[in-house]
Amino acid sequence: MSVWKNLGEHTVYENPWLRVNLADVVLPDGRHLDHYLIRQRPVALATAVNEQDEVLLLWRHRFIPDSWGWELAAGVVEDGEDLEAAAAREMLEETGWRPGPLRHLLTVEPSNGLSDGRHHIYWSDSAEYVGHPTDDFESDRREWLPLKNVPDLVARGEVRASNSAAALLLLHHLRLG
Question: What's this model's pTM, rounded to 2 decimal places?
C-alpha cells in the first residue's frame, strides 16, 4: 500500500476562512517532502428541484478565474452550526427561497491534493419563496432551470464549479434516470 505520512505541520498563514500549513511528508519510498496544504472550514450547499423537474440555481461571476456560471447556493458553515442548517441558511440568504426538508445528496472534496476542504451538498423537492434574497450581491440572477438541460449546461462550460457540476449531474441521474 502506497501511503504518504504526514509527520507534522505548522501554520504559515491564517485568516478566518483558511490556514495555509507546511507539512513534513514521508513518501512510500522513505523520501521526505515539504508539502503546502490548505486547511478549510466546511462548506454547505443547497438547492431544490420542483414538481416540473426544474432546479434552482444562481448565475454568478467568480472574480478569481474571471468566469461566469450556474451554481448552487453555498457558504461556509459557522462554528457550531449544523451542516443541514447551514445549507438551508445559505439557500435562503442567496436565493430568497426557503427549502423544504433537506436531504443529503453527497459530500465532495474539490481539491483534495491541496486542501482538506469538504463541501456538503443538500437538496429538497420543495421550496417556498420568502422574498428578495438578503445576499443578492452573490449573483446576478436566480432561476429555475430544467433539470433535463443539466448535462448540456455542464458540457458547454456553463456549470464550472466542480461541487455544483457533481451535484447537478447526480440530481439529473436520480430524478430523470
Answer: 0.94
